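Audit log entry. Action: structure prediction of a protein-small molecule complex. Ligand: zinc ion. The ligand was supplied as SMILES and no pocket hint was given, so placement is left entirely to the predictor. Protonation state taken as written. Sequence taken verbatim from the request; no trimming, no tag removal. Recorded inputs:
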Amino acid sequence: MSKINFHPDHSHLLAFATGEGQPGTNLMVSAHLDLCPMCREKVREIEAQQAHSEIEIAALDMMPGNYAAMLNSIMAKPLVADDVIGASYPKTIELDGRHFALPRTLQRYVHKTGNWSRLVGKLWQAPVDLGGVGSAHFIYMEKGGRVPEHTHRGSELTLVLDGEFSDGLNHYETGDMTFLDGRHQHTPMSDADEGCLVFSLVDKPLHFTSGLARLLNPFSHLFMK
Ligand SMILES: [Zn+2]
């Protein structure tokens, strides 16, 4: 298993554990947790601290009704990356006869994934309907494939599912997760023989910044949006 270098930061894990994060961000964090034992452990610690402080608060004011409310609130907490018990989803997605294993969190969206379409530059994308939570796609870069240089009007969350890619800022491997916004300008590309599959979530269209790709801007709502 490859080493994961890019993790959600503490504030994302805390927001996930307390259920206060944005739904799209929580989804990405949950998918990362499926791949990252280190962050799973951190979330467990945060949840243990949360439960402990709730018990302390309740113990100071131990009225029968409050005790019941406390138990209810603890019981209502979602388990990490929990799924509906017994539900079974496809465990992989397929592109051109290749099957890619998915983290458990993303398996439930396989049947909400549209057809692959081929874009410029050896790129493939398939839209994923998350039900109004930003714009999500599986994106596959063939070896040598690249996304034109762009920045972001909103945020771009990316989780590497298979293979590796670079973007001029860093090199990313399976399990790595990145949060980028308008401060970052990058050119994702893969030189790996096996290419690279990522799951990407953006809340606003990309803004292409260089050369001919700038001509794409009027259409950027069609491109990864
Ligand atoms: Zn992690």
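Audit: result stored. Residues 37-60 form the longest helix (24 residues). The two ends are 31 Å apart (CA to CA).
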